[in-house]
Design brief:
Layout: E1 2-13, E2 16-27, E3 31-35, H1 42-50, E4 57-62, E5 65-66, H2 72-78, E6 80-83, H3 95-103, H4 109-122, H5 138-150, E7 156-160, H6 168-183, E8 187-191, H7 195-201, E9 204-209, E10 212-218, H8 219-224, H9 226-236
Parallel strand pairs: 3-8, 3-9, 6-7, 7-8
Antiparallel strand pairs: 1-2, 1-4, 4-5, 9-10
Helix pairs in contact: 3-4, 3-5, 6-7
The chain binds adenosine-5'-diphosphate and magnesium ion.
The site of adenosine-5'-diphosphate (ADP) has 11 residues, from strand 2 and helix 1.
């Protein structure tokens, strides 16, 4: 069963086609990794799925409902949440308040306080909850953003480069966290450059190149695909 079904979607920015006739199915309950070189169109595809851009053409379905023309907030209410690539925590506010702001959408009263503590503990942010978000390390800011996305209790969590700026230990921990959300039923679509992380979490992989689907399949099949190694792995080191 598909939770998201992207059908023939394109996005043009002036003369540039950032996403070109993409079909993508994300199955309910899976961890699906979207990989590809810089500029492949990964972040644009995410923004199309969550409704931050209207597509130039094509349709997007969520739980079989056509959401192509729905606004981002309506998609959040359906159960989608995104951690974008560019940092979006409120740096001048305390960590705890960042989580509180995100929780307001779904929770109130005692339930909200309980969820606040649960998220701060889950993300190892409880000891730093009084600090300004801007004073956290880069890795901790990424965790805070993941926590803010989780605060919306999504059925589908989209993570755009969640481990950028993290140490290998932090990256591994993030992978384990994502697997734990997934084992509780959350579907996860994640853009990542770190191949160790992709190996750790991915159940299926889609490769985007120059805005188009270049390959898709199981993690094993993608890792063995020489064409993928040429376009992606070769350049990943230079990135
Ligand atoms: P990726 O996330 O795979 O690195 P992006 O989706 O960010 O790729 O970008 C794909 C292409 O679209 C790039 O050439 C980028 O410069 C261009 N692009 C992305 N967003 C915009 C925008 N808002 N306006 C114009 N061009 C954009
Ligand atoms: Mg990107």
């Amino acid at each position: 069963m598909a939770i998201v079904d992207v059908q023939g979607v394109s996005k043009r920015f002036g003369g540039l086609t950032a996403v070109s006739d993409v079909d993508l199915t994300v199955n309910t309950g899976e961890i699906h990794c979207l990989i590809g070189p810089n500029g492949a169109g990964k972040s644009t595809l995410f923004k199309l799925i969550v409704g931050l851009y209207p597509p130039t053409k094509g349709s997007i379905f969520f739980d079989t409902v056509d959401i192509t023309n729905e606004r981002p907030h309506a998609r959040v209410q359906r159960g989608m949440s995104i951690k974008m690539q560019a940092p979006s925590v409120f740096k001048e506010l305390p960590v705890r308040q960042n989580i509180q702001i995100a929780l307001q959408e779904r929770f109130s009263g005692a339930e909200r306080s309980a969820e606040e503590e649960r998220l701060l503990t889950l993300l190892d942010l409880a000891p730093d909850s009084g600090k300004l978000a801007g004073a956290l390390s880069h890795g901790q800011q990424q965790w805070l953003e993941i926590g803010m996305a989780l605060a919306l209790k999504p059925q589908l969590l989209l993570l755009d480069e969640p481990t950028a700026g993290m140490s290998p230990e932090e990256t591994f921990k993030t992978g384990e966290l994502i697997k734990s959300f997934n084992s509780e039923g959350m579907t996860v679509l994640v853009v990542e450059h770190d191949m160790a992380f992709v190996r750790q979490v991915a159940q299926r992989v889609t490769v985007l190149h120059l805005g188009k689907i270049f390959a898709r399949g199981s993690l094993e099949a993608i890792l063995q695909d020489e064409k993928v190694a040429e376009i992606y792995l070769g350049k990943a080191h230079a990135h």
